[in-house]
Design brief:
The complex is a heterodimer.
Chain A lengths: L2 H21 L2 H22 L5 H20 L5 H13 L8 H15 L6 H12 L4 H7 L4 H17 L11 H21 L10 H17 L4 H14 L2 H4 L19 H17 L4 H14 L8 H14 L3 H15 L1 H8 L9 H12 L3 H14 L3 H15 L1 H6 L1
Helix pairs in contact in A: 1-2, 1-3, 1-5, 2-3, 5-6, 6-8, 6-9, 7-8, 9-10, 9-11, 10-11, 11-13, 11-14, 13-14, 14-15, 15-16, 16-17, 16-18, 17-18, 18-19, 19-20
Chain B lengths: L1 E10 L6 H21 L2 E6 L7 E6 L2 E6 L7 E11 L2 H15 L3 E5 L6
Antiparallel strand pairs in B: 1-5, 1-6, 2-5, 3-4
Helix pairs in contact in B: 1-2
The chains are: A mainly alpha, B alpha+beta.
């Protein structure tokens, strides 16, 4: 990315958020900001980049919006125009809007993009476009869909915001916890899609992880008093820290116990652990904070054997109480197997149902293998292979399966 | 002020027995009353079953008449309420009340072009 592209990406979300409030329309806001970018491309190389590029973009976009309105408005629209213009002109003259106002606008945009009345895929796309400042082409590429498909998804979602009048507002009172959970879920969805790409050949799509972490940092900045926002950021940082050790040079998945922990990103681990400690001091635990705490326990251990698995089981019990799900039950069973042995882990899997996911048979295969129940382990491995959609995960499972099917060869190696 | 149509989505088939239906109708009447006193209620009605519907389809200069609801589905619109609401969140809030009272899914559709 060139420096000017970087400035644009940074400025896009801020500028569109402010302009949407002033113009009352996302499309008009985006158009005005694009106009301002065009002007910047012409002027900045000559005049130099202004001291506050984002503020310059907002001011220029506002002026462009007024020009456009004057040019395009018909007689019948004059009254509306006059009112909007008054709102635009009433804004402060200085190059930057009040920092607090911009913050409020960015939050409004975030909650609008993540409104539960929009389809989940649309929430993700809108958030990356309007808050993250990614281009439609970048989002399409990240989700492996053709650009026209992504463009249409965005157009349709913005159409619904406009037609159904999804309010440009930060929810208050009783609505806030649910809506905030929705926002956090969208950011985490971007991260998990990047972390374990559900399709394609690469296990990790770094661009999406980086984008999710950027959004997570912004959430913490916008809502410093929300411990779950801190928890989500911590969870993402601690997970991201392991990325260098998670895929082997041949592109194969390396499971946590086998990872070379010296390759973990120490700076990210330290930052994530610091955030977990900040969460603990708040004393208002939530699902993201507990998940982050679990990852922090793993990060504390120099080797897999050093892991405080009892603490991990306690945290999973806590998580099951806060936000029970089959995936949590599955991970709890893995931890139980470390504390009380593979038979106990297998027993903890009883009743866990996770159709269409390779995770349950993969864990079952590993526990059966450790119990020496090889034939059943091979069967479970096959079941997992049939369900895994990601090439790196399939390679890993195939190797496991081959080792099981021919134990003498693999153990002799 | 915008307007929203709240459609009650009803499963086809016989209505529930009176001991089930009566408290539902009572709860629905209470929500309608709440809408009226809040000044958001514009218009509303319950509909006869979808099996009583007739479809008219333009065909050249003619209009064909056929039996049955237009959409082949196991659920159809069983009733509707038109409300005034400033935005979707407000409309959804009223829709939630109707959903709870009717025990049915509610489809919330914005009316195009603002107030009629």
């Amino acid at each position: 990315m060139t420096p000017i592209e970087e400035v644009f990406r940074e400025a896009y979300g801020r500028a569109v958020a402010v302009l949407t409030r002033l113009l009352g329309d996302i499309d008009a806001a985006e158009e005005a900001v694009q106009d301002a970018f065009l002007t910047a491309v012409q002027r900045w190389p000559v005049d130099g980049v202004p001291p506050s590029p984002a503020g310059w973009i907002v001011t220029t976009a506002r002026n462009r919006a007024i020009d456009r309105m004057r040019r395009e408005s018909t007689r019948t629209e004059r009254y509306v125009r006059a009112a909007t213009e008054a709102a635009l002109l009433a804004g402060p003259d200085e190059p930057t809007e009040e920092e607090g106002t911009v913050r409020d606008d960015r939050l409004r945009m975030l909650f609008t993009c993540c409104h539960p009345a929009l389809a989940p895929a649309a929430r993700v796309a809108l958030t990356l476009r309007l808050v993250g400042g990614l281009t439609t082409a970048e989002i399409a590429h990240a989700f492996l869909v053709p650009e026209p498909t992504m463009a249409q998804r965005l157009v349709r979602a913005k159409g619904k915001i406009r037609d159904a009048r999804i309010p440009y507002r930060v929810p208050t009172g009783a609505d806030l916890p649910d809506r905030l959970a929705g926002v956090l879920a969208v950011v985490y969805l971007v991260f998990t899609e990047g972390h374990t790409a559900s399709a394609g050949d690469d296990l990790v799509r770094t661009d999406l992880c980086a984008e999710a972490i950027r959004l997570g940092r912004e959430l913490v900045e916008l809502m410093p008093d929300e411990p779950e926002a801190l928890g989500l950021l911590a969870l993402m940082l601690l997970t991201e820290a392991r990325r260098p050790a998670r895929v082997s040079p041949t592109g194969e998945l390396v499971p946590l116990p086998e990872q070379d922990r010296t390759r973990w990103d120490a700076a990210l681990v330290a930052e994530g652990q610091d955030l977990v400690r900040r969460c603990l001091r708040r004393g208002a635990p939530g699902p993201y904070q507990v998940q982050a705490a679990i990852q922090a326990v793993h990060s504390d251990a120099a080797t897999s054997a050093d892991t405080d698995w009892r603490q991990v089981v306690v945290l999973y019990d806590h998580l099951m109480a806060l936000a029970p799900s089959p995936v949590v039950a599955l991970n709890r069973a893995v931890a139980v197997a470390e504390v009380d042995g593979p038979a106990a882990g297998l027993a903890a899997l009883a009743g866990v149902e996770l159709p269409r996911s390779h995770l349950l048979p993969a864990v079952r295969a590993d526990l059966l293998r450790r119990l020496g129940r090889t034939a059943e382990a091979v069967q479970a491995c096959d079941a997992a292979l049939a369900l895994a959609g990601n090439a790196a995960e399939r390679t890993f499972l195939r190797r496991r399966r081959d080792e099981l099917a021919a134990p003498d060869r693999s153990e002799g190696a | 002020m915008a307007q929203y149509l709240l459609n009650l989505i009803q499963p086809d088939g016989d209505a529930p027995p009176p001991e089930v239906l009566e408290p539902i109708m009572r709860d629905l009447a209470a929500v309608n009353e709440e809408m009226r006193s809040a000044g958001v209620w514009v218009f509303g009605a319950g509909l006869h079953p979808a099996s009583s519907a007739t479809v008219l389809t333009p065909s050249g200069t003619d209009v064909l008449v056929t039996d049955g609801p237009f959409a082949e589905a196991k659920e159809h619109i069983g009733g509707f309420t038109l409300i005034d609401a400033p935005d979707l969140d407000a409309a959804l809030e009223w829709g939630r009340k109707v959903a709870r009272a009717s025990t049915l899914p509610i489809e919330v559709r914005p009316v195009a072009g603002g107030a009629v």
